[in-house]
Write a structure and sequence with these properties.
about 700 residues; alpha+beta; Recoverin, domain 1; seven-stranded antiparallel sheet
């Protein structure tokens, strides 16, 4: 992984293009890829890589080199993203290493066996403590530059241009007739509907899933199954459908304790940049109707004891890369931003509820304050780097290792919560057997640290701002955009290292631990911590059943016939659950969710409604167990009756209306006992089943503004 992410690769040298641009050609010229050489220092007979002081994972890394001296390295530049004192002669591509894990007495031996572009992967070895390292000369291999379509990049264009220039890749700012390797969209996957190959920096459905109501529903489902694991998200109510429940609970709290007066924060479902957010203490203060239309929003418990720096409330903007959903791969940028309020914090009271510069950390709000400080320094001003804040907390004795570990867990659990819906959207927009791109996406996690250092998830942005300039008044009434050094340092690094990870020519990049966020402990995320978090992925298994029975390519709703087929195939009907009861359950849940999703024009049962139905069925069949055990037992039962899926169906539903895998036997799940049919009718049915798939037009979304 690159130097900005938790799974970081050790950088060997800058990639240098030796070919020339051919602007008039559709096919780019091939370029030479120089192979990194050992250090240019004449005194170095070996190489050594150490981590920053205070880290526990890698305390010693000794590389010995025997044989001839190394050739001179033409790219002997210091490793970006690491303190200068933490790096010593990192440019030997093939040398033996001994890694001492501090505090354990264990030694991992290995050697740098793979070098790809600017990075070298460190592989563990259990048998040898000291391995010979000899100079090897490799002939330079030729490759063309990676091509990036930036025609839809919008506000991230400037940071993207700088990143592409640093990587010496090739940009197409007006698009290209031939296919590009990477397409960079500014808002959503549907910014360009004509992509059939390459990689797109947006997932279909991510905008919808990270809206405040859908995120709250997804996390609430996980809280039902794992209440102790998902306590990092404030208690939430969805308006207007849960207004009565919210009002009743607040009234009961006040009746039980007259001195108790909790504060709540109201966030519009489609709001961004702090627009429409306000604080309340009484349900009567809710603004439920705008014009003649009910306003959808989420109301949450307000965190009234945040951690303060310089008496100011602040939050963390953390950049998270979802590299893949199948298999799940998550990377966390080691550098982020911290956004500060512009008025000293006071606990909420009836008098100060409207003082947004005190309570809300949104940049777009606080920049309007006269107290906002634009600073060129990363550790002063109203916007600072995450590493500078972590260094400051560490200097005060805060256990940064524990804080960072909690943040990593929060990120992984949050992604697991939204992943089932994301997979349903993915199979609908890019069905199997249809050409389509692969996807990745940078998300912006907004995290608040409480006074006790517990991280709290505020929201997740599908379209985090990548602007590297800010508006400034240069004369009375005259404004212009000027560079923001802090934004440029962080955001260009995030985009550049994301592109490195998605480089289609570097398939073998692996990651090594690194000190994260200004001297915090080494960070690795999914799939590094698969064992610790795999038990949380129960709803994904339910989603796999849902996708399996959708039947129609591109569909996201389960019809009544498909739901009955699910019940019969999994053999869930019995004397206590007749098919009439199944129909009533389907109608009841589908009708309730149709009112909850008032803006949806599709009929049928969506995934969230199916999850509710599945919980209901599990409770009926395994009454004596707790909810989690009920769900696990029903999943095991269904999967045992269904059998394993084919490789194509494992990621998405089968193509050609559940066409059978080649060479496989007809499973009883998909096809009933065949009836006699005439040859003409058989030809007509076959031609209709396997006609080319037409992608349904995406639903119209409200304008999505970057956060």
């Amino acid at each position: 992984m690159s130097d900005h992410y938790g799974d970081v690769k050790v950088q060997l040298g800058q990639m240098k293009s030796l070919g020339e641009d051919a602007e008039k050609e559709e096919v780019d010229p091939e370029e030479e890829m120089p192979v990194s050489s050992p250090s240019a220092s004449p005194d170095s007979a070996g190489c050594c890589i150490t981590t920053a002081p205070g880290t526990d994972a890698l305390s010693t890394n000794i590389c010995k080199q025997k044989g001839k001296r190394s050739r001179k390295n033409p790219c002997g530049k210091p490793l970006q993203g690491f303190p200068a004192h933490a790096v010593k002669n990192i440019n030997s591509p093939i040398c033996e290493q001994t890694l001492l894990i501090k505090g354990t007495g264990k030694i991992l031996q290995g050697k740098s066996a793979e070098s790809n572009g600017n990075y070298v992967a460190v592989h563990e070895s259990s048998n040898t403590q000291e391995t010979r390292c000899e100079d090897e000369f490799k002939l330079p291999r030729k490759r063309r530059p990676v091509t990036v379509d930036t025609s839809k990049a919008k506000t991230s264009l400037e940071a993207l241009k700088l990143s592409i220039k640093e990587l010496q890749w090739k940009e197409f700012h007006t698009g290209r007739r031939a296919a590009c390797d990477i397409y960079w969209h500014g808002v959503s996957f549907h910014d360009n509907e004509n992509i059939v190959s390459g990689q797109v920096n947006k997932f279909p459905g991510m905008v919808e899933m990270l809206r405040k109501i859908n995120l709250s529903r997804a996390v609430r489902t996980m809280q039902e199954l794992f209440p102790e694991e998902y306590d990092f998200y404030p208690r939430s109510w969805i308006l207007p459908e849960e207004y009565q429940q919210f009002s009743t609970e607040i009234r009961m709290v006040k009746e039980s304790d007259a001195t108790e007066s909790p504060t709540f924060i109201v966030k519009p479902d489609g709001g961004s940049q702090g627009d429409g957010i306000y604080l309340i203490r009484d349900p009567g203060d809710l603004k439920l109707v705008v014009g003649a239309q009910a306003k959808q929003a989420v109301v949450q418990e307000y965190i009234h004891k945040p951690l303060l720096i310089d008496k100011l409330k602040f939050d963390i903007r953390l950049y998270v890369l979802i590299k893949s959903v199948q298999p799940l791969e998550i990377y966390i940028a080691k550098e982020g931003l911290t956004r500060f309020c512009t008025e000293p914090y006071q606990e909420p009271s009836q008098k100060n509820l409207s003082r947004v510069f005190m309570h809300l950390t949104n940049y777009s709000l606080n920049v309007q304050s006269g107290n906002y400080v634009h600073s060129d320094s990363q550790n002063t001003g109203s916007k600072r780097t995450l590493s500078s804040v972590l260094y400051r907390l560490a200097a005060k004795g805060v256990d940064i290792k524990r804080v960072w570990s909690d943040i990593i867990a929060l990120v992984i659990k949050s992604v697991i919560a939204v992943l089932p819906d994301l997979k349903v959207h993915y199979q609908a927009d890019i069905p199997p057997a249809k050409p389509g791109p692969t996807c990745f996406q940078i998300l912006g996690f907004d995290i608040l640290l409480m006074k006790n250092l517990k991280p709290v998830l505020l929201e997740v942005n599908s379209n985090p701002s990548m602007r590297i300039e800010h508006e400034q008044e240069v004369a009375p009434g005259v404004f212009e955009y000027v560079p923001s050094p802090v934004d440029e340092q962080v955001k260009v690094g995030v985009i550049r290292d994301t592109l490195r990870l998605m480089d289609p020519f570097n398939k073998k990049l692996t990651a090594t631990p690194h000190p994260a966020g200004g001297g915090s402990d080494p960070v690795e995320v999914y799939p590094k911590y698969t064992k610790q978090f795999s038990h949380l992925r129960l709803v994904e298994r339910i989603a796999a059943l849902f996708i399996r029975f959708l039947g129609v390519k591109g569909n996201m709703r389960l019809g009544p016939t498909a739901f009955r087929t699910f019940i019969r195939t999994c053999k869930l009907s019995n004397s206590n659950l007749t098919m009439a009861s199944v129909d009533i359950l389907y109608i009841d849940i589908t009708r309730r969710w149709s009112f909850a999703l008032a803006d949806s024009r599709e009929a049928g049962m969506g995934l969230q409604a199916f999850v509710e139905a599945f919980f209901n069925l599990a409770g009926r069949r395994f009454k004596s167990l707790a909810l989690r055990e009920q769900v696990v037992s029903l999943l095991d039962l269904c999967e045992s009756h269904l059998g394993p899926q084919s490789g194509a169906e494992d990621r998405r539903s089968l193509s050609c209306s559940r066409a059978l895998p080649r060479g496989g036997r007809t499973p009883a799940l998909y096809l009933p006992r065949p009836r006699p049919i005439s040859p003409a009718a058989h030809r007509r049915a076959t031609s209709q089943d396997c006609r080319p798939h037409q992608r349904p037009k995406p639903r119209t979304l409200r304008a999505n503004v970057e956060n």
